[in-house]
Design brief:
The complex is a heterodimer of chains A (about 800) and B (about 150).
Chain A (H helix, E strand, L loop, with lengths): L1 E2 L20 E6 L10 E6 L8 E7 L2 E7 L12 H6 L14 E4 L2 E4 L2 H18 L5 E5 L5 H15 L4 E3 L1 H4 L1 H11 L10 H4 L2 E5 L3 H4 L1 H11 L6 E5 L5 H5 L2 E3 L6 H14 L5 H7 E2 L1 H8 L4 H8 L3 H13 L3 E5 L1 H4 L4 H15 L8 E4 L6 H7 L14 H11 L15 H10 L4 E5 L3 H4 L3 H10 L1 E6 L11 E4 L8 E4 L4 E5 L12 H12 L15 H12 L11 H4 L4 E2 L41 H7 L5 E2 L18 E6 L15 H6 L5 E3 L1 H6 L7 E5 L4 E8 L6 E5 L36 E9 L33 E6 L6
Parallel strand pairs in A: 8-9, 8-16, 10-11, 10-14, 11-12, 13-22, 14-15, 16-17, 17-18, 23-27, 24-26
Antiparallel strand pairs in A: 1-29, 2-5, 2-29, 3-4, 4-5, 6-7, 6-18, 19-20, 20-21, 23-28, 25-26, 25-28
Helix pairs in contact in A: 2-22, 3-22, 3-23, 5-16, 10-12, 10-13, 10-14, 10-16, 13-14, 19-21
Chain B lengths: L2 H25 L4 H27 L23 H33 L2 H35 L2
Helix pairs in contact in B: 1-2, 1-3, 2-4, 3-4
Classes of the chains: A alpha/beta (about 800), B mainly alpha (about 150).
Chain lengths: ~800, ~150
């Protein structure tokens, strides 16, 4: 057995470049349950980060009692991370689960029947449609439901009601990944695959603390690092993350300056001629735009703006420019920061300059934050149309109208679907008067919480969730949802791998799947096609999946070849169709990109302002299957340190929690590993403020305040960090504020509309002396600064944090 | 030669547009994208005036009174409130930016007529940004119009 709280990434299984990553089967069973006691193993995939690890759920006496990784699956080769091991089934089987619908009566939530709860929603819905029309309805969904559920919701919104106001919390986690892929390559769709880790010579992690956000993927990197021919590693992150500790070059950049750094790297690559001229000539357009934008960004200029040594910029660019096979990954350090889309497109640009795309070991992984965020994007439950269709292309709208049997004018397509931040703004202004939240917790996860709580309290709010979250507590109607292991459906991870997750047990009490809830609403609203038949006549997830397959036919995300039978066992990567019956490992192996006028998902935007390019100028640009170099001039972030707020504030994850801790906070080993909020301060800033480890401090921005203990860590001087997971559901009434988003500002990227969580200005002040070390884990980026850890107990899991690891010999795997 | 009159017009129009962007930015600060982006656009206008300065130096007006007041656009000195007010204010900005945009076009023609390479280059450095400003205003208004005209109270 291994303590997988202390050893987040488990036991090393080193391997060489080009070899198969050895399989290691990780397993955790409930106390007192042995393998022989298990009645059945039911296939699924983990929902506690975006990696998409395939697993089997152990069932005994009708209850989930354990989990193990699937050895043959391409994603995880048997492994599971601490969250999968200790918060999957444990996060579901908790006494706090919602088991009956609730409605608000005289200001208090009281138990009621499904009929009454749904009746109240439908009554409100009908009344608003009559008074104002569909623009009165707004939806805020998740990155944690299943594909079939998103598609049902997308059809309800676009063809049933006809409202453009539908988005997900995916706006907060993955919108920039989609936007950057669309701008550069014409369509969403991950170019690379996890196998590229096996083959690469160098890896760049841009704002991506993979060691904590996708622990199993990081295990794969660690196994390459410990192998005979380790890849070079470059890390861009203001924190001393585990990634940074293994990096050959660590660019500990000032938050908000990513684009300046990227311009510097691109400029160096151009200056040294580390480019593939024939690839550029044949497969790209508009390099001249990039040349102009990067021109001022010498390594010295980058050093001045970003606070990193010029020599490190040169060395990083040299690695990018000279390694044979380079893999880049990008996540929230770029996505949730200033000029997000432009900085993320710059990563794509680096790969286009060298023609490093569509080949083993080369390419880009624009990552996601949540397990099923890819499906929110594909299915049109966020700010996109289903099947990567283009809202500006009348033919794409016609296809949807035909699929759904409704008039084209019913489908809102005068602008892109409304992004989450704007949905909340319309609710604030009172023009959205019914807000329906499914599977997420904006009362903790959105920026500038004091404002968000007021909006949620003042709007007719429907919430469907597993638990009475901070958001559900503000609702007018609360619907108890069935979750992972309690329903059947599919979902897709970052590298386009689709997994089937089977129902293992019955949901508790009266809880119903999100799909059942949406279908019930559609029936009660009597949404119909033009021919009079019901809009959604699906009886369950299998019907929904079949309808979805039709919707994807001929599109880049083609699911037509992925039957549920094919998904029995292991995952399959889309596109999968007659031409690629076994799925597709890498996109763009022929360097032909979906930028054709008829095919593209967007005609693009000006990356500085977000102005749409429009069909006519796009046509004039004639991309015709070539990728587009997109860029913007660097501009400073909207909020920079000032006399009142002298420090840069940034937020992020810890390895032990997911989202707002609704599941992980209910797992004892995970909660014990990171039981409470903290703020990380560099040793120099701690000295300057007379603060030491464990002291209680106020962190204050122009918008709010939190009071949390300090961890003195190796974060870059001038920057402070707080984890975003912690809210109030497990806090006593009147507790001091601790949610990181009390401090963040309301602003978003002009193209992806992803909120800027990583650039705010704060001040910090000591409130009380330490009564012990802060609750921050010692095993992650929040570990104590070098030479300061004395007296701080290392984070361990104890008996509850044990899991077995079985390394399989290569011939067995 | 009336070129100096038009150079004075663009100089004043960029100044007015920058001021108008800042007025709307502050007046609609509750719309964060509008608030922050209009600050950026205002800085672009300031930059355009700096780029133009050497050209103005060479083509000075002989007499300030040569520029009739009626030539100018007044800009926005205050903002309206609510979703409809935002829409209408953005429309006013669109008109002010359109004046700048088409004036750049006239100046480019004059620059070519005079074979004045510096003037041509100055215009080329600026007019692309102005047309993107118009593009953003159009994008933002198209997004806002249905909600403001149909659903807002």
């Amino acid at each position: 057995m291994t303590d997988r709280i202390a050893q987040i990434w488990g036991t090393r299984t080193p391997y060489a470049q080009g070899a198969r990553w050895p399989a290691r089967v990780d397993q955790a069973l409930a106390e007192g349950v042995g393998e022989d006691d298990v009645d059945a193993w039911v296939q699924s995939a983990c929902l506690l980060c975006s990696n998409g690890c395939a697993c089997d759920i152990a069932v005994k006496d009708g209850a989930m009692v354990g989990i193990r990784g699937r050895a043959d699956d391409t994603v995880n080769h048997g492994r599971l991370g601490p969250k999968g091991l200790f918060a999957s089934w444990q996060g579901m089987s908790n006494k706090d689960r919602l088991t009956t619908p609730l409605i608000r009566e005289n200001g208090v939530l009281v138990e009621t029947s499904w009929d009454t709860a749904m009746g109240r929603i439908v009554e409100r819905s009908r009344q608003l449609l009559e008074e104002t029309g569909p623009l009165s309805h707004g939806f805020h969904t998740s990155g944690q439901l299943f594909l079939e559920e998103y598609y049902a919701l997308g059809v309800i919104g676009k063809a049933g009601l006809g409202t453009p106001h539908m988005d997900g919390n995916t706006r907060l986690c993955t919108a920039t990944a989609a936007a950057a892929l669309k701008e550069s390559f014409g369509s969403d769709g991950q170019p690379g695959t996890y196998e590229d880790i096996d083959d690469c010579d160098a890896m760049f992690l841009f704002g991506h603390n993979m060691a904590e956000t996708q622990t199993v993927l990081w295990s794969r990197v660690l196994d390459r690092i410990e192998g005979p021919d380790r890849p070079l590693l470059v890390c861009v992150d203001p924190r001393e993350t585990e990634v940074a500790r293994h990096a050959d070059v660590h660019l500990a950049i000032r938050p908000g300056t990513n684009l300046a750094l990227m311009h510097g790297l691109v400029r160096e690559v151009l200056e040294h001629g580390w480019i593939d001229d024939s690839f550029i000539a044949e497969h790209t357009i508009r390099l001249e735009d990039v040349r102009a934008a990067v021109e001022p960004w010498t390594p010295e200029a980058v050093a001045e703006t970003c606070g990193v040594p010029a020599a490190d910029v040169r060395r990083a660019a040299e690695i990018f420019g000279t390694a044979d096979r380079v893999l880049s990954t990008v996540l929230q350090g770029f996505y949730q920061s200033w000029q997000a889309t432009a900085a993320s497109c710059a990563v794509n640009n680096l790969h286009l300059l060298r023609g490093l795309i569509g080949k083993p070991g080369c390419g880009v992984l624009q990552m996601n934050g949540q397990p099923t965020a890819q499906n929110t994007r594909e299915c049109g439950a966020d700010g996109d149309l289903p099947g990567f269709r283009n809202w500006e292309n009348p033919e794409h709208i016609r296809q949807l109208a035909e699929l759904w049997g409704v008039d084209e004018l019913k489908i809102p397509h005068w602008a892109p679907p409304t992004h989450a931040m704007q949905v909340f703004r319309y609710a604030e202004q009172g023009s959205i008067r019914l807000l329906w939240v499914s599977g997420t917790n904006p009362a903790v996860s959105m920026p500038e919480l004091p404002r968000i709580r007021k909006i949620l309290a003042d709007t007719f709010l429907v919430v469907q969730d597993l638990y009475l979250t901070e958001t559900a507590a503000l609702a007018d109607v609360v619907l108890p949802a069935a979750g992972w292991g309690e329903k059947t459906g599919t979902f897709t991870n970052i590298n386009r791998t689709v997994h089937l997750s089977r129902q293992a047990v019955e949901p508790p009490g009266q809880a119903r799947s999100d799909l059942d809830i949406f279908l019930d609403y559609a029936r009660r609203m009597d949404f119909r096609r033009n021919d009079g038949s019901p809009l959604l006549d699906w009886s369950g997830p299998e019907d929904a999946y079949a309808a979805w397959q039709e919707c994807t036919r001929g599109r880049l995300c083609d699911y037509t070849g992925i039957s549920w039978t094919k998904l029995e066992g292991n995952g399959v990567q889309w596109p999968c169709n007659d031409k690629a019956p076994e799925g597709t490992e890498r996109l763009y192996t022929d360097a032909v990109f979906p930028t054709d006028l008829d095919r593209c998902e967007t005609y693009g935007h000006d990356l500085l302002t977000g102005a749409t390019v429009g069909p006519t100028p796009y046509k004039a640009m004639a991309p015709q299957g070539r990728a587009i170099f997109k860029t913007a001039p660097y501009s400073p972030p909207p909020e920079e340190p000032s006399e009142d707020f002298p420090l840069r504030f940034t937020t992020g994850r810890t390895a032990y929690h997911f989202h707002t801790r609704t599941k992980t906070g209910r797992s004892r080993p995970l909660n014990d590993a990171a039981p409470g909020a903290w703020v990380e301060v560099s040793p120099a800033d701690a000295r300057a403020h007379g603060i030491s480890e464990g002291d209680l401090v106020d962190v204050t921005s122009a918008r709010g305040r939190i009071q949390v203990p300090v961890r003195v860590s190796d974060i870059a001087e001038g920057t402070v960090f707080a984890p975003f997971h912690y809210g109030y559901w497990d806090q006593p009434d009147g507790a001091e504020p601790r949610a990181a988003n009390e401090l963040t500002l309301t602003e978003w990227d002009p193209v992806s509309k992803q909120p800027i969580y990583k650039n705010a200005a704060v001040r910090i002040g000591r409130v009380a002396a330490s009564t012990g070390p802060s609750p921050a884990p010692t095993t992650t980026a929040s570990r104590p600064a070098r030479g300061t850890g004395a007296g701080i107990e290392p984070t361990t899991g104890g008996p509850a944090g044990q899991a077995s690891e079985t390394v399989l010999e290569p011939e067995e795997s | 030669m009336k070129l100096p009159v038009y150079l004075a017009l663009i100089e004043r129009s960029e100044e007015t547009l920058a001021a108008s962007y800042r007025v709307v930015s502050e007046g609609h600060a509750a719309e964060p994208d509008v608030h922050f982006l209009l600050q950026t656009l205002a800085s672009q206008c300031d930059k355009h005036r700096r780029i133009l300065a050497p050209v103005l130096e060479r083509h000075q007006l002989s007499d300030e009174s040569d520029v009739p007041e009626s030539l100018h656009h007044e800009g926005l000195s205050s903002t309206r409130s609510g979703p409809l007010g935002l829409l209408r204010d953005l429309q006013d900005l669109y008109l002010a930016a359109s004046l700048v945009d088409i004036t750049w076009t006239m100046l480019l023609q004059a620059g070519q007529g005079l074979a004045d390479r510096d003037l041509i280059e100055a215009v080329q450095q600026c007019d692309g940004e102005t047309s993107t400003q118009l593009g953003w205003l159009r994008t933002r208004m198209k997004q806002a119009a249905p909600q403001a005209l149909i659903a807002a109270g």
